[in-house]
Write a structure and sequence with these properties.
Layout (H helix, E strand, L loop, with lengths): L1 E10 L2 E7 L3 E5 L6 H16 L2 H7 L3 H4 L12 E9 L6 E9 L13 E10 L5 E7 L2 E5 L5 E3 L10 H6 L5 H11 L2 E3 L14 E2 L13 H12 L3 H10 L4 E3 L6 E2 L2 E3 L7 E2 L6 H13 L7 E5 L10 H12 L3 E6 L2 H11 L3 E7 L2 E4 L2 E2 L2 E2 L2
Parallel strand pairs: 3-17, 3-18, 10-16, 16-17
Antiparallel strand pairs: 1-2, 1-4, 4-5, 5-6, 6-7, 7-8, 8-9, 11-13, 12-14, 14-15, 18-19, 20-21
Length: 373
């Protein structure tokens, strides 16, 4: 199942926007146009599967910070609406998940600015029309169980709980469980720390690691898995050499911990440890771990991956992205038109320019419902 559409309304600068998505979502724009809000809306869909949606919005400053602050229609509910559509390219089965978050009522057991999950709907379409698989209104939830019967979920949910997380983990509702598992596998990489205490500069536990953690803490184990388990690093070695002036990645056989270093062509007798590498070098290696790991998730999202990279590293980064697209779906938000053009050339992706129109985030040449005819 791949992500085919993303709709967001009432969230920060996203007054109302709908995106049709292919193998690569490639978004470029200046500061302040709302690129990160698009990325964040996608993250909140995953947070709904994790059961942390209300907490994530609260961390942003609560509903007063998350809500669209522009003009509204009279009588319109004050809500954040997020919806993701999915499609199985092999079976043509489509599904859709929508969640609506609003403010607590005037008299409520909740906190003043706490996000309240108001509605959730999960549908699956395999024929002429969508079939409801889960529906939540307030605390009450109904869903189709393992026998296909619509039943009332026995537990009334709290305002901060999502039905997708609660039902998906129960094992009684297969469609909710399958979607939850898909979303939990998504990975969001929005900048790796590069300070001296950064997780990416540290050794990792010697545990086979098929994909990179979001903070990059298992980077050394990801490299060790490629080198000593998969035993195929041709593309990884090429990318490192192209980006880092002919450098070679060195990954010793792990003991209790996995580690790595770089051997530079000008200093062939010495291996430079991660703590000795520049910010750009260590960030590129972390991106290599994210995009070239043994197994990629259903979606890899990158927020400004060009940060701290020397311009000469961008072609190698674009090559890694294009190679990753053969195995997964990739979402990229970037300031760099140079990187966007390189990715377009290598993957055939359409560059979408993010702009502000009357205070709202929009895609140049597209209306709120998608591309203009």
């Amino acid at each position: 199942m791949r992500l085919s559409t993303l709709t967001a309304a009432g969230y920060r600068s996203l007054k109302s926007i709908r995106l049709d998505l292919g193998p690569v979502g490639l978004f470029v724009g200046e500061n302040g146009v709302g690129k990160s809000n698009l990325y964040r809306a996608l993250q909140l869909i995953k947070a709904s599967a994790e059961g942390t949606l209300a907490r994530e919005i609260a961390r942003e400053g609560g509903m007063q910070s998350a809500l669209w602050s522009g003009p509204r229609r009279a009588g319109q509910p004050v809500r954040v609406v997020l919806q993701a559509g999915f499609e199985n390219d092999r079976t043509a089965v489509k599904s859709s998940y929508r969640v609506e978050i609003g403010l607590p009522p005037p008299v409520s057991a909740g906190f003043a600015f706490e996000p309240h999950i108001k509605e959730e709907v999960l549908t699956v379409e395999a024929g002429r029309r969508p079939v409801g698989m889960m529906e939540r209104r307030g605390p009450a939830v109904s869903a189709r169980d393992n026998d296909g019967r619509r039943v009332e979920h026995p537990v009334r949910l709290m305002n901060s709980e999502t039905a997708l997380a609660a039902l998906g983990v129960s094992g009684r509702y297969p469609e909710a469980g399958e979607l939850r598992e898909l979303l939990l596998g998504w990975r969001f990489y929005h900048g790796f720390r590069t300070d001296s205490d950064s997780p990416v500069r540290k050794p990792a536990l010697a545990v086979t690691s098929p994909l990179l953690d979001e903070d990059g803490a298992n980077l050394a184990a990801v490299f060790a898995t490629l080198v000593h388990i998969r035993q195929d690093t041709v593309e990884l070695d090429r990318s490192v050499a192209d980006a880092l002036g002919g450098a070679r990645l060195e990954v010793p056989v792990p003991g209790e911990a996995a580690s790595f270093g770089l051997r530079m062509p000008e200093f062939p007798q010495r291996v430079f440890r991660p703590e000795e590498l520049s910010d750009g070098q260590i960030r590129f290696l972390a991106l290599a771990g994210a995009l070239m790991s043994y197994r990629l998730p259903a979606l890899v999202a990158l927020n400004e991956p060009e940060a701290s990279l020397h311009p000469q590293m961008l072609p190698a980064l674009a090559d890694m992205i294009a190679n990753a697209v053969e195995r997964t779906q990739v979402w990229i938000v970037t300031h760099s038109r140079d990187l966007a053009e390189l990715v377009r050339q290598r993957s055939g992706a359409r560059i979408r320019t993010v702009v502000r129109v009357d205070g709202a985030t929009a895609i140049e040449g597209e209306g709120p419902a998608g591309p203009r005819s």
